[in-house]
Design goal:
The chain is mainly alpha-helical. Among the domains are: 87 residues, no CATH class; 62 residues. Helix content is 41%, strand content 7%. The chain is built from 7 helices and 4 strands. Helix 4 packs across helix 5, helix 4 packs parallel to helix 6 and helix 6 packs antiparallel against helix 7.
């Protein structure tokens, strides 16, 4: 492989360059957090503005706005707490440890991205940073080995759910959370029934439930009960059943006894 091939790099395609221009225009509209300089001396460290002294007021205003406060004491308290969440770096010149600048700037940027309006909302955003860092470190520790430890995975999963709850709480404070809306609509159902009455014949008085002449019997015809003759026996003259009478009750004869 020649030296020219080693030092040369491939150019972006035309499509990727067009996407890059769009991304640059979008990034210019996106607010950003200014840099932070960590200074160490005599075993101690503190943060300061990395810019010229003429821009110090603007740097302080941007940093205060990231935490939704105008109090210098509140700002210093937030910065100290966030710096303790970052990993430490060794400074060979001063022979002292100090928090990593990149991690500190990232922590401040996460707080600023929530756009806290008050110090209370900034506290919630700082808790989100702490939960995020713990979850990422535990996840990295669990994935370093071929067989992840179940307890570490369970704690990492709980931290992920906690971060989601904090994020939802922040959204509700800003009025952007999901709301359950129940719409009750009144539904009325009307049933229309059509009843058709067909009149009968003239013989039954236009009543449909009366039978027609073909099926109607003669109302003047009466059925007289037939009178059956008296039962006969060997001595029918002596023992003949009498016909029914309407004269009233009579005295029953004394029954024969043996």
């Amino acid at each position: 492989m020649s030296q020219k091939q080693v030092g040369s790099r491939e150019r972006l395609s035309e499509a990727l360059r067009q996407f890059g221009e769009t991304a640059i225009a979008r990034h210019l509209k996106r607010p950003a957090t200014p840099g932070i300089k960590v200074t160490t001396n005599a075993g101690r460290w503190w943060f300061d503005s990395p810019y010229d002294a003429q821009d110090e007021d603007h740097w302080v205003a941007l940093m205060f706005d990231a935490f939704g406060t105008r109090s210098q004491s509140t700002f210093c308290c937030f910065m100290t707490q966030l710096s303790e969440l970052c990993s430490n770096e060794w400074n060979e010149e001063t022979k002292s440890w100090h928090p990593a600048e990149d991690e500190l700037v990232a922590a401040v940027q996460i707080v600023r991205s929530t756009k806290p309006r008050t110090e209370a909302e900034a506290c919630l955003a700082a808790q989100m940073v702490a939960v995020h860092l713990m979850q990422m470190k535990l996840s990295a520790q669990a994935l370093k080995h071929g067989w992840p430890e179940p307890r570490t995975c369970a704690i990492a999963a709980k931290l992920a759910r906690t971060y989601a709850m904090l994020f939802e709480t922040m959204a509700k404070l800003k009025g952007k959370g999901s709301r359950q809306r129940i719409i009750v609509k009144k539904f009325a159902q009307h049933e229309h029934k059509h009843i058709h009455l067909y009149p009968g014949d003239l013989e039954n008085g236009d009543r449909p439930h009366e039978p027609t002449r073909a099926r109607q019997t003669n109302p003047q015809t009466t059925i007289q009960p037939s009178v059956s003759p008296a039962l006969s026996c060997s001595n029918s003259a002596e023992h003949r059943l009498s016909n029914a009478s309407i004269e009233g009750p009579r005295k029953m004869p004394t029954p024969r006894r043996s």
